Amino acid sequence: MTVLVGLPRDERATAAVHLGVMLARSLDADLLLCTVVPPPWPPGMARVDAEYQEYLDRSAQEAIEQARRLVPGDRPASFVVARARSTSVGLLDVAREHGARLLVLGSSTAGVLGRVAFGSVADRLLHSSPLPVVLGPRGFRCRADATVRRVTAAFDATEGADELVVAVAGVAARAKAALRVASFAVRPRTPLTAGIGSRAEDAVAREWAAEVERAQRAVLEQVERLPRQPSALASAVGYGSDWAGAIEDIGWEDGDLLAVGSSTAGPLEHVFIGSRSSRIVRHSPVPVVVVPRGAAHALAERAERPA
Amino acid sequence: MAPLLHQAFRRKPVEVMAAETGVDGHGGGQLARTIGLFPLTMIGVGATIGTGIFFILSEAVPVAGPAVIWSFVIAGAVAGLTALCYAELAGAVPVSGSSYSYAYATLGEVVAMGVAACLLLEYGVSGAAVAVGWSQYLNQLLGNLFGFQIPDVLSQSPEGGGLINLPAVVLIALCALLLIRGASESATVNAVMVVIKIAVLVMFVVIGITGWNTDNLADFAPFGIAGVTGAAGIIFFAYVGLDAVSTAGEEVKNPRRTMPIAIILALLIVTSVYVAVAVVAVAAQPQAEFEGQEAGLAAILEDVVGASWPGTVLAAGAIVSIFSVTLVVIYGQTRILFAIGRDGMLPGFFKQVNARTRTPVNNTIVVAVAIALLAGFLPINFLAEMTSIGTLVAFLVVSIGVIILRRTAPDLPRGFRVPGYPVTPILSVLGCLWVISNLRPITVAVFGIWVAIVLVWYFTYGIRHSRLAAGTPREDMS
């Protein structure tokens, strides 16, 4: 199994490499680090902008060298420079070629430290990648021997939500990590002009949470029947007046990973991040993996296969 | 019979109310007191203006003549008295809610259901009335901008010579869609809407006053006192929403002082705007022309100026602000039914929250369909009167409730006490009764039938399914 890390060309990709190493160590996978450069243009007239090409190649090599220094000696890692029109296409080509199972990216430098922010490449991949995409918060760091200790599956009791939990349970079992099923009850403010007090929305959120807790129990029972178990099972409902608050409410630790599903509105085999998942991702204090429905389905099937 | 009555008057414990909505998901919790006098006053003004003033004159002037000005003052005075009583009842319950929840906590289940019946009128029917008013202004705007109007058959109720009021139905459907998606009006939107509403009404007064003609005021009160009070009943509808100030109590800084001042300030602002609009309108146009006039304020302006632009501006402002009013009213209605559903007195269907949208979808659809039927097929004057009587009776109960509560629970800590007790609540009760007695008999009869239906429902279903009947209203306190 291979974990592919996308390296930006023009900045240190420490967060992405750290995250890639942690995931590869947890899943006992190979690392493949890749940076993408645009091909010469127009084709066949490479000399016209040879200097620019040289500069690109040089910076790609530098990025690779930097990444090489960051990978601990005990992890097998290979490095590749791909040529492609666009970074996202290049990364997906490399992933296909090497049979990668996870695609790891860092956050945009425009984001807030400690939160996930999509750069243009991540945004593209979050609407087109057939394999799960992992995004690290900006400035993510971990010790060289760190592993994933707990995977939290975001769960909202809608169609297809169970499958993601089962899929994540399988991956957590493989990584010898715990599984936590988490739902986020966001209470919007009640408009006071409606004359029904300030707490009408709290009641709606509570009712939603009561339903979701029932569904959480049911899905955890499903997980308990799996042949390979995560190291521990838990569930949580976070309350907050906005997504940030609700996500913070359930508490996070080092070694946490958050998994969200992709929207049912998108195609089955690609990630298509919905507005709600997108909000969860943006407010996550820990790395996030976004799983396309097709991949969730395949992973869930694998999790259910007898040992 | 005694046990039945005992059951009917059981009250919902306040700690249960608090636990049900637990702020942090673990029960209890205080909201931050962040609302000062000015924002609170704006909440009152924003919740009140826009419900009626844009179209109520066409209904009220034929009843009262130019003396409609006094009808506004009477309706305003009664509204102010009731709002003060309402603030005391709201302040006696430490958890905020609607008058349904206040009545449930202090006066008993059957009273709460009676109040709920009134609230269904106050919200549902006023939503319909407001939507019908919106459709008048939409037609006016379409006519001014594109020279095209929706034909009567599709923009009038059957009584008005049409088939269905389609724009009103479409507006309600739009609001329902927004609510299902989870839109709610923010404080900022409310502030913007207040500004728009007041701006167009001030524009009406400033431009309309140039058309002042004292001859129009000659026959000042053609129908005497009866006409004035009859119109006050219709107009009372325009004051619906003032109670929103009291329901914000939990978040108000220094509520004992802020609350009454905000209520009185909001009332003064609203009443002065209404009276100014009314004075200008009756002076600018002979009273005979009000009857059946659509989008009245815009029409008056156009006649005064002799051009269509002021009417267009006013219609545009009315359309935007009435839209937001409709949204909030339908929203309020769904959440009140939701609360009744959670208390067990409506089938679970009403408190179901859709997993995907996280909003009570079923409930919203039922409410929207019901309001759309009312708006599509009933004339606006009937809708306005039904709203008025619903609100008046709810306030009547609240005012009596204040008196009862002072006798039964004199030591209950109250965030706010009515000034001039017992005169204020008694005046409030008398005022409500006086205005109600001047409504059309048909309105009172329909109202009586409606309350009877709700009470029959309560005694056949609600009393047995109430979560208080189950003895453990704590199933969701895990």
Automatic annotation (TrEMBL), chain A:
Sections of the chain in a coiled coil: none
Indicate the segments forming the UspA domain, all copies: 2-135, 149-292
InterPro entries from the xrefs? Rossmann-like_a/b/a_fold (IPR014729), Universal_stress_UspA (IPR006015), UspA (IPR006016)
What the entry lists under CDD domains is as follows: USP-like (cd00293)
Similarity remark: Belongs to the universal stress protein A family.
Q: What is this protein called?
A: Nucleotide-binding universal stress UspA family protein
Q: Which organism is it from?
A: Pseudonocardia hierapolitana
Upper classification of the source organism reads: Bacteria, Bacillati, Actinomycetota, Actinomycetes, Pseudonocardiales
UniProtKB/TrEMBL annotation, chain B:
Where does the record place it?
A: Membrane
Q: How does it sit in the membrane?
A: Multi-pass membrane protein
Q: Which InterPro entries match?
A: AA/rel_permease1 (IPR002293)
Its Gene Ontology molecular function terms?
Answer: amino acid transmembrane transporter activity
An annotated GO cellular component of this protein is: membrane
> Which domain of life does the protein's organism represent?
Bacteria
Alphabetized UniProt keyword annotations: Membrane, Transmembrane, Transmembrane helix
* Pfam families, per the entry: AA_permease_2
Protein name (Swiss-Prot/TrEMBL):
Amino acid/polyamine/organocation transporter (APC superfamily)
**Which organism encodes this protein?**
Pseudonocardia hierapolitana
What is the phylogenetic placement of the source species in the record? Bacteria, Bacillati, Actinomycetota, Actinomycetes, Pseudonocardiales
